[in-house]
Input
Amino acid sequence: MKKGTSMNNIIIRDVRIEDVHEMSVVRKKVWNTTYRGIYSDQAIDNFDYERAKERFKSYIDRPNTLFKVALHNNKIIGYICFSKDDKLYKDYEYVIKYLHILKDYQGKGLGTTLFKEVLNYAKRNNIKKFYLSCNKYNYQAQRFYEKMGGKKDHIDMDLDDRAKEQIIYIYRIGVSGND
Output
């Protein structure tokens, strides 16, 4: 987080419809700092804000979904979305769809705080397992997901597009390292 910022200054709350524009701006900033060199410059430079907003809107008030934003000084600095998935990975019904945090706030505990929101939601709702997908070249995210107890279950190999190469992490609630 920025110097002088502590988790005490961060507010975590449910996403509201009026958040989606600012969330799309955060997503673009995260793409710039995280995926430049992985995704094509064209994909990053031509980021589709409207498409991002529509995707975010589709998860607001969706059943079986946890969708939270993190705010500092009333500005969105990150968000997480956990939902029942439309496309199952094996027999995993739930997925972390999004976890994006602005670079200045990474590595300070905010990701852990947001991830624990998911774990608590899963426990309250008797969800025993879930998965997430991470770009194969996003090494910082991989370290974080492994720290949070994720186990690599699948790794895409040698696709034509580095942006599409993913690692699937699986989590089981009640298994050491996940709760």
